[in-house]
Amino acid sequence: MTVRWTQVTEQDAAAWAGLCARAEEVDKTGENYDAEDLAEELADPLVSLEHGTLAGWDGDVLVAVGVLRNRATANPVNRVYFDGVVDPAYRRQGLGRRLTEWAIETTPAVSRSRFPDAPMELHASVHEHNTVKAGLLTESGFAPQRWFFTMQRPLDGELPEPVWPDGVRVEGFDHARHDLAALRVRNESFADHWGSSPQDEESWRQWYTGTRAFVPELSYVALAGSGDGAGDEMVAFLLTQFFEADQVVTGRREAWISTIGTLRAHRRRGLASALIATCLRAAAAQGYDRAALGVDADNPTGALGVYEAAGFTVDRRHVTYVREFPLR
Predict the structure, then answer these.
(1) pLDDT at residue 230 above 70?
(2) Does one domain contain both 159 and 306?
(3) 155 & 13 share domain
């Protein structure tokens, strides 16, 4: 077998989606992508198609893909993210090792193209059952550093009631009024989260409030103030996404709660719980079958307990592997 290696192009989105679907049949990660999802990935300004992608072809069949993605900011380090997939029919033939070696070799140039003097790390997420990929990363100098849970709950049973503290009210998300304020709250509230870096306006709109998956009808902000709207401050927010590719595969409409942020001074007041309850009730009314979200198992804000109290249970686990690069 001879594999031809090229960069990924925008025209490869459909072939990449087919590769991901074949892999998911075996890997059972719970993640599904259509061509439009992956076209959006390739349009990300933090991905260099020329220098940060690698595609392996057997004739006209795409059998392996690797992508490197910079972060929007390097504070305190640029965490380059590596995503790689190999067709199950082509595994154990060295393609995964080829992608991993390419990622390690290419990361310094990719990182320095955006942040010339910043320290860098290479991150990769591995499903808990993918021992082969975990072993390959370990052999290549990566080490497991953090565990993440995907949690879900059905929407056909009893749902929690939102309880708002005095002086706080909820509004549905409005781009014109809430977008930049939510970005500020996100950056401040995630400052103490492992692996998180501040988002800039471009990346915020690419992957949070401008992505095709964003559902403003299931996204909310919590405002503190006098109640008349004058001088109200956003103190927490919740964003929701919907992935059509998941529904095609599973037959279920899932409301993915992608981001919840609360300013440090307003934590422990029940704002996240109230936002989640508001979202769950609206999602059920809009015909969604279940809700899901992701959480750092060691989240310092106690988020895991908040989600469990809202009826979420762990559905699957991922491990983040990290390879550090020495400073020049």
Answers:
(1) no
(2) yes
(3) no
